Amino acid sequence: MKTHRSLIKIGSFVLGFGFLGALDGIIFHQLLQWHSVYMATDRPGQIVSDGLFHFAVTITLVIGGILLWVAENPIAHKKGIRLLIGWFLIGGGLFNLTEGIINHHILQIHRVKPADPNPLFYDLTFLGLGVVLIVIGYLIKKNTETYQATINT
């Protein structure tokens, strides 16, 4: 039972990380066309960098799905759905923080919306969304773990 709960946590986290990566690629790279993974190249280079990013995100989604499949039905575990949602949101929020801090600020390979007069606003909003997702996920997960602790005592 503990192994299944761990797989739900890890699988949900990985799935959330990959899902927010996919949303980033779909919304910011393709639909809005605000940026690419690596902006300092010509258009074919940008397409290749985005393709590699989408491939990595797809692999992450598949791994998260497999881990959840192996974990079996989250409904079969006490508060399993809350674990799934909490860790999914934490994973998604960590994607935003990791990608935002590394790519936007440390490596400076792109900004969320570089053509805007105030690109820092969009970068900080992106990071803020990551923090909000982590906090909400933590609160959902914490409620589940507090519930489990009271049952086990």
UniProtKB/TrEMBL annotation:
<keyword id="KW-0472">Membrane</keyword>
<keyword id="KW-1133">Transmembrane helix</keyword>
<feature type="transmembrane region" description="Helical">
    <location>
        <begin position="119"/>
        <end position="140"/>
    </location>
</feature>
<feature type="transmembrane region" description="Helical">
    <location>
        <begin position="83"/>
        <end position="107"/>
    </location>
</feature>
<protein>
    <submittedName>
        <fullName>DUF2243 domain-containing protein</fullName>
    </submittedName>
</protein>
<feature type="transmembrane region" description="Helical">
    <location>
        <begin position="12"/>
        <end position="32"/>
    </location>
</feature>
<keyword id="KW-0812">Transmembrane</keyword>
<dbReference type="Pfam" id="PF10002">
    <property type="entry name" value="DUF2243"/>
</dbReference>
<feature type="transmembrane region" description="Helical">
    <location>
        <begin position="52"/>
        <end position="71"/>
    </location>
</feature>
<dbReference type="InterPro" id="IPR018719">
    <property type="entry name" value="DUF2243_membrane"/>
</dbReference>
